[in-house]
Amino acid sequence: MVMTGVLHDKNSGRRSFPSDKLAMLRKHPIFCDLESEAFDQLCRYAKHTTLKRGATLFSKGDPGNSLCAVISGTVKMSISSPDGRSAIFNLIGPGEIFGEIAVLDGQSRTADATANTNCEIFVIDRREFLPFVRSHPELAMKFIELLCAKLRWTSDQVEQVILQNLPGRLASALIRLADKHKLAPGDRTIAVTQQEISEMVGMTRESINKQLRVWATRKWVRLEHGAIVVLDAEPLQALVEAGSGSEGD
Amino acid sequence: MVMTGVLHDKNSGRRSFPSDKLAMLRKHPIFCDLESEAFDQLCRYAKHTTLKRGATLFSKGDPGNSLCAVISGTVKMSISSPDGRSAIFNLIGPGEIFGEIAVLDGQSRTADATANTNCEIFVIDRREFLPFVRSHPELAMKFIELLCAKLRWTSDQVEQVILQNLPGRLASALIRLADKHKLAPGDRTIAVTQQEISEMVGMTRESINKQLRVWATRKWVRLEHGAIVVLDAEPLQALVEAGSGSEGD
DNA sequence: CGGCACGTGTGATACAACTCACATTCGCTT
DNA sequence: AAGCGAATGTGAGTTGTATCACACGTGCCG
């Protein structure tokens, strides 16, 4: 199952790629140190695609033929069990890269990628990308750093899920998301639904909702539709550090 | 906290490194394609160290100054929460590499490393290792593959912990460990205590024991002291694939 | 050949989180 | 402005695991 729900494929992106969209990628840690010439060459390999909400980009187990980056919207990386439950690994926002694992090691995809909102993405074929990396060793080092960062993110997730109970896991997830989304320094708004958080954290939406309501009355968070605002990160951080102790929660 | 319980540090390993011990590392996917000359050079950078059971090699949060490899024995990668519980990420056996994340990205260590048995390890300093990688781009590609493999391992762990209940998680852990340890093709003996498995899986030893006993009466596994033998992997695999359905367990 | 630490085995009880079954609110589409 | 789907809010009842509190086996070390 690949590329269902694609609105339209633009031409392969040879010349005249919308340059404002590329500016964001140009600033990505992976590419920021690359010479302009090399970056332009990479862009000529890229395809620009638009997906509508709910569309599947690829599924777990598919061969990994392409590296992707989000231009606008968000892509959900998740897996689902046969009995219908699903777990979200990560939500990928504008300027972020995804799908790199399968591309780099040539194995199958580790998760499903679906458009969580309508979105524009940027796709590079493995056959063009790999030789490019080989001829740019400094890029390989950048990818090593990228993989390390993902590994830290995922290890954190294991740590929280194994060691913490509901309040701890939820607090930890909120903090991680707030750090990641950090748009403006003051703005702690996280654009996720309660259903989504519940799937990241591995607990039911109902349980998450009840805990969030408790915190809302304490003014630690404010609940909006499709978003959560972290008003006071301190007590949440304290909860995470205290381990799975209950202490009045 | 670094290097407590070190039995003795041999000299820095310049010349005359015990070559039988290196043979194992030479075969590691990371190094097997390296020219002998380069490999020898790397060995001259290495230090040989012996640790006794329980010794701490490094702790989560320490600066990551060295890359390590196990020669003999096993090293436990784990984290612990303030309330005393702990979670095991992985057990590193002979011929395996660990501590690469912090070395490669220059950040702090993501977990504690302790000697799970008396063991011999092989240590390379970051200051010597990084330049070596930079001057051997093919090695960088190998490390990318290594990181991808670790990421797959860790993602699997998240998937199981979030989606599965006790039987599913336990079955999944047993299968993963059996694949990893796979010494002889027929031998499905996993050298771990029930306590250790419980910490890998995030459930209590008691619960794990009760489930294992059920499977033992069904001849799916045999329990030994400090080890578990997988007799029939099929029904375990089926359990994992069925998701968290209970079906007579 | 103790003895002592570590690993294993097992039941009774408690509770955190799930399930199910709704009611409510929001925001978009027509 | 009406309607509808998606997101949120909430309670009563159920259950999977944790906790606690033991007893037993085994193997190593002095």
How are the elements arranged and paired?
The structure is a homodimer of 249-residue chains.
Chain A: E1 6-9, H1 19-26, H2 36-45, E2 47-51, E3 56-58, E4 66-72, E5 75-80, E6 86-92, E7 97-98, H3 100-105, E8 112-115, E9 119-125, H4 126-134, H5 137-163, H6 166-181, E10 189-190, H7 194-201, H8 205-217, E11 221-224, E12 227-230, H9 233-241
Antiparallel strand pairs in A: 1-2, 2-9, 3-8, 4-7, 4-9, 5-6, 5-8, 10-12, 11-12
Chain A binds a DNA duplex (30 and 30 nucleotides) through helix 8.
Written description of the protein model:
The structure is a homodimer of 249-residue chains. In chain A, β11 (221-224) and β12 (227-230) form a beta hairpin. With 249 residues, chain A is α+β, with helices and mostly antiparallel strands. Helix content of chain A is 43%, strand content 22%. Chain A is built from 9 helices and 12 strands. At the A-B interface, β6, α3 and α5 of A face β6, α3 and α5 of B. The structure holds a DNA duplex (30 and 30 nucleotides).
Which tags fit this structure?
DNA-binding, 9 helices, disordered N terminus, 4-stranded antiparallel β-sheet, 249 residues, 43% helix, homodimer, alpha+beta
Biggest sheet character of chain A? 5 strands, antiparallel
Largest interface, with Cβ-Cβ < 8 Å? A-B, 42 and 43 residues
Strand arrangement in the largest pleated sheet of chain A: 1-2-9-4-7
In helices, the fraction of residues of chain A equals 40-55%
Strand tally of chain A, please?
Answer: 12
